[in-house]
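Write out the bound-state structure for calcium ion.
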Amino acid sequence: MAEEIYTGLGQLGSDAKAAETPEEATLERVPNPHPDMLYCARFVAPEFTSICPVTGQPDFAHIVIDYAPNEHLVESKSLKLFLQSFRNHGAFHEDCTIYIAKRLMELLEPRYFRIAGYWYPRGGIPIDVFWQSGPVPEGLWVPETGVAPYRGRG
Amino acid sequence: MAEEIYTGLGQLGSDAKAAETPEEATLERVPNPHPDMLYCARFVAPEFTSICPVTGQPDFAHIVIDYAPNEHLVESKSLKLFLQSFRNHGAFHEDCTIYIAKRLMELLEPRYFRIAGYWYPRGGIPIDVFWQSGPVPEGLWVPETGVAPYRGRG
Amino acid sequence: MAEEIYTGLGQLGSDAKAAETPEEATLERVPNPHPDMLYCARFVAPEFTSICPVTGQPDFAHIVIDYAPNEHLVESKSLKLFLQSFRNHGAFHEDCTIYIAKRLMELLEPRYFRIAGYWYPRGGIPIDVFWQSGPVPEGLWVPETGVAPYRGRG
Amino acid sequence: MAEEIYTGLGQLGSDAKAAETPEEATLERVPNPHPDMLYCARFVAPEFTSICPVTGQPDFAHIVIDYAPNEHLVESKSLKLFLQSFRNHGAFHEDCTIYIAKRLMELLEPRYFRIAGYWYPRGGIPIDVFWQSGPVPEGLWVPETGVAPYRGRG
Amino acid sequence: MAEEIYTGLGQLGSDAKAAETPEEATLERVPNPHPDMLYCARFVAPEFTSICPVTGQPDFAHIVIDYAPNEHLVESKSLKLFLQSFRNHGAFHEDCTIYIAKRLMELLEPRYFRIAGYWYPRGGIPIDVFWQSGPVPEGLWVPETGVAPYRGRG
Amino acid sequence: MAEEIYTGLGQLGSDAKAAETPEEATLERVPNPHPDMLYCARFVAPEFTSICPVTGQPDFAHIVIDYAPNEHLVESKSLKLFLQSFRNHGAFHEDCTIYIAKRLMELLEPRYFRIAGYWYPRGGIPIDVFWQSGPVPEGLWVPETGVAPYRGRG
Amino acid sequence: MAEEIYTGLGQLGSDAKAAETPEEATLERVPNPHPDMLYCARFVAPEFTSICPVTGQPDFAHIVIDYAPNEHLVESKSLKLFLQSFRNHGAFHEDCTIYIAKRLMELLEPRYFRIAGYWYPRGGIPIDVFWQSGPVPEGLWVPETGVAPYRGRG
Amino acid sequence: MAEEIYTGLGQLGSDAKAAETPEEATLERVPNPHPDMLYCARFVAPEFTSICPVTGQPDFAHIVIDYAPNEHLVESKSLKLFLQSFRNHGAFHEDCTIYIAKRLMELLEPRYFRIAGYWYPRGGIPIDVFWQSGPVPEGLWVPETGVAPYRGRG
Amino acid sequence: MAEEIYTGLGQLGSDAKAAETPEEATLERVPNPHPDMLYCARFVAPEFTSICPVTGQPDFAHIVIDYAPNEHLVESKSLKLFLQSFRNHGAFHEDCTIYIAKRLMELLEPRYFRIAGYWYPRGGIPIDVFWQSGPVPEGLWVPETGVAPYRGRG
Amino acid sequence: MAEEIYTGLGQLGSDAKAAETPEEATLERVPNPHPDMLYCARFVAPEFTSICPVTGQPDFAHIVIDYAPNEHLVESKSLKLFLQSFRNHGAFHEDCTIYIAKRLMELLEPRYFRIAGYWYPRGGIPIDVFWQSGPVPEGLWVPETGVAPYRGRG
Ligand SMILES: [Ca+2]
Ligand SMILES: [Ca+2]
Ligand SMILES: [Ca+2]
Ligand SMILES: [Ca+2]
Ligand SMILES: [Ca+2]
Ligand SMILES: [Ca+2]
Ligand SMILES: [Ca+2]
Ligand SMILES: [Ca+2]
Ligand SMILES: [Ca+2]
Ligand SMILES: [Ca+2]
Ligand SMILES: [Ca+2]
Ligand SMILES: [Ca+2]
Ligand SMILES: [Ca+2]
Ligand SMILES: [Ca+2]
Ligand SMILES: [Ca+2]
Ligand SMILES: [Ca+2]
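---
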């Protein structure tokens, strides 16, 4: 099993803080220890928050990311800090969700990628945003996210 | 078993429409067929809606009413029409919930009464309102409402 | 362990049919094999149906009965047939539920009894009826019924 | 990330009220900030209500809308007000649900659209209405709605 | 939106009673207000009951019907009365379920039809019966029924 | 509807007991009342138990059987007795599950068959066994079993 | 922490088989390692089965046992074998459940004891049996069992 | 019903922003429209976030507040802004939760108050904090919060 | 709000490793920032594991700890390391659970303490262990743990 | 049914202990008793734990393995011991999960294989890893795992 893939990273194991904006945040990657295997890694980030650019109010989302690594894995601490960099930054729901996707696509050039943003309701109506990089490649296993739908009350 | 208690009612079996305001709505009652028994009747009204007096926006609630009949039962069609009469009427959450209680208390003089109003969230925060007429009388069985709490997303 | 308590019964093991009305139905009882123990027996009858005396439409309920046997147990096949005897008989929700209780109280003279009738909604509003014979006797264990509340849709 | 797409709108940020009928309601749209991405946006509207044209009684539904934006997004406040405009308007279940679809199809000319209307039961039987604009385009991710089925009681 | 499709019906708005047998029951239909749209309507009937032709005991089922209307919709009150007509009629599980399908197929000649009968257990083993008229037509959206499986106890 | 298919059976309506081994058990069949319809029947048997041939300890399973009848249906009482015949018989998990399948395949020659055996955990690890006779025939509707996965504690 | 309490036992670590009847089964006990603490131990036995003395059919139950040890703990392997000894033994639901209680009471003389037997349905109606040795002693924590109620279908 | 209680407020209906620290935030109150009724109001705030004073990392919590109004209600928009003021402020879990309580106690002098803070896990272990102002007053109805416990995975 | 309570600790913020046995592990405490408030803190540890002293096999548990702080709080990193110290140490279920309680009682001298150990099944039967230091003090709020019961399969 | 397949094994029925590293662990196999049947066996291992090679902290996972046997089955006790051998061994999440797959692929040369590793969260974000050996072979039935998604709190 691989033990040497996490060298030369800037944030892991250090006291790195989140950047002030997503654009300033640095996503890091490490070599995929199993480039011969078409597999899926899923991250669930239930603690996402950003700012509404119109009202200045905080927005919240539960984010699920699935990807099939190609030559690299995302280094998970840099992913956490990247997600935290939206904390005081204004961005619309669709934009946030898709921007996260674009940054990870650029970093990883994965065989497959998808993102789901489950946003908390505003005005009684929640919005979910779903994007994938294309059809699921043949032979890749990507289970459903299983996130409960919004149900109001009762 | 009782078969004659529903005579002399104004709304049951007719084409009665909801009143335009709760104050105008007529609640009707019928004799309790088992006045010797200390029991509880529960109504669940998942289709409650009113108007916010400040914003003019519709509000929604899931309402649960429990009461222990004394000499009378509420006639259920008149209850339905009474609840519908809030549809285009402005009233705050706490006020609506407690007003429903007061009207039923006045009509029924029950041995026990309680109401739960589970309001849909506004600004990300739902409000629930709970009132009962006093401690549960000894020997009366009033199960929990079991309504699922609001959970946001995820 | 007891093996001789089910003798002399009219319906168990025979091809007995349900009576045409609850009044005609015969409830049978057998000796309590453990009269020294204050325990609770719960029956769940999710297949209850009767007729609305006003509209002639069928009504449905999920019924839960808890009791603490005294000298007798209810014989379960006679209970099943008794409940089936409401099938084509007109009776209101509260009446049905309480009548079942009264018949079983009369038959069993139990140390404790309670009944819950969870009726399917009519006009969007379901009614539940709860009755118990008095406070739960000290030392008797009667768990909650755990029946899910009505939730409408969503 | 986009910050200028919400200009020139009539309702957002103002005190706009819902129109009196769906036909009078104005749906607004904004440019899709990511027209290069085939993605799905989902709206959940658990607070839908209209009037039955036969009985005059209120009807309720839990509505889920999924669409893949083409050149435009629906502006969410105008969507909310459009849905509110059914509040005192008579329309059948199938009609309401499909009419919402048609109005949004006309406004957005999306790459894909679907709607689910989960209506509260009447006469003990709820109706659900499901429509989509055609097969899901290859590569578009549209998860199941996950709405719990109606279960009656028990 | 359509407002004139419910004229000339025999049962809607009248005091029609259920027929004594399914064969005698009259199913009625109305014009499909959106014959240009390939959509699905789902009915959930949790209150189905019939009689076992061998034992004479009542049987119960939770029925889910999905269909894609062609030129007609089933009129929902006549459907309710049709389902009620099995109440005192003997029929096996598979037969009941498939017979309902055949009657609706004959009435509606729909673009697609399916039925699920979830029968309450007998002898500890429940039976479910599933039929559809053929593969789901391309572009029709028919979500899973989501009915919970039987789980015994625990 | 069919009423004459259950004649000439050995076990239904009699006091038949389970055989002592699965090999000795007699499965019976009746004519399929709807051979023109490609439908699915599901049996859920949550009360399955056998003996581990190595340790002599009892094993337990929750079994789900789906099949599309061809010319015959399995007679359900004989199925129940067949499943009971494993009670004191030693057989491995995979063997039991597949043997049940083979016996039913032989009896019914169905258009499609599948079986799921959800075995209770041993050594902290449960085993599930899934087999089907081939791809689901085009147009046959076979919903997921929906059985909850094993979750340990918490 | 205690390490010497499991010596001198007849069944633990050996190839002991279950006795043929509950009366013949030997329950064993070990010293309570914390006799100074008023605590509760809960056993959940979802694999209980016995024989109906009237019909000879197998019965199944999900059993939950809570007790507050006094001077002894029940040795868990002997408990497992004791429960297995009902496998081919005829006993009624109430009898089985209460007999288990009596044997454990006799063996352990605990500060508190309770048992819940959740029996699989027969004739559509499951029976639960609940017994406790008396009121919960002050300061003892005995959480609810949380077992899901029987729900039929849907 | 009351309509004049929301006058003279600083934040409601204006574009008020959250303060930068909880100490600077202004909580506002309005007269209780039903001071004669001992009732409970519940707020659920699933979007709470603060900063860990040791690590500088964001913390998240799901907060539930129940109180029995005395002479005043908390004005809900000021509550929302107060909770938002923790967003970039460092505070420990226990401290945050209890500080919220103290500020509301001071503002409202309620007849009863309680707060539950359900914090997201750190290091695999979540912390919940529960406080109430004293025993629940006789006759006040305060249902359980019903928040799901943390379960890890599986 | 308090900011100076975490000084002088040995493990927090350092690279401390778990001790090799529970006896060697050092639990640390910090001053209670709100000694004037009778509140409850709950820790959920779903990742507990130890070794069976008889078989040498690993055991697993989901642990829930509730306590009402007196003068001190447990420092959470030292608690995590204490729980990890059981990883390669042999101890029986009841012993482990109660030993954790005794160590925390000794460290904290809390106003109230309780622990629940939900152990994964062995031989098909899981054991839960529940202990509390005495009755819940008047006015302390300690909600149920809400942990799902073991359910076997199905 | 097969009874002779478990001969000549090194670990089953003996007191074998887990190896100290996965590389040293011996996986054993037995002949597939039904090589003519394309079926799926699923193992659920909710008790998996390993060590993080960077921090030395324990990691936990809930693992689900599905495979379609070819000529051999994995012997389940050797699988259990293999999984236990990760207990004190350092390995990254992706590596562990994929390494288990590779070892089983090598041993079994199955017709199909897949693995899901549901890892407990670190830093608030859990990772899931999914791999399969290729597309599901035509006619093989491999149900979804149904594992609940991570949901944070609330
Ligand atoms: Ca799926
Ligand atoms: Ca409760
Ligand atoms: Ca409770
Ligand atoms: Ca709802
Ligand atoms: Ca699905
Ligand atoms: Ca699905
Ligand atoms: Ca079970
Ligand atoms: Ca599915
Ligand atoms: Ca409780
Ligand atoms: Ca039901
Ligand atoms: Ca409770
Ligand atoms: Ca777990
Ligand atoms: Ca409780
Ligand atoms: Ca409870
Ligand atoms: Ca699925
Ligand atoms: Ca959440």
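---
The CA atoms of residues 49 and 60 of chain I lie 4 Å apart.
The longest strand of chain I covers residues 39-51.
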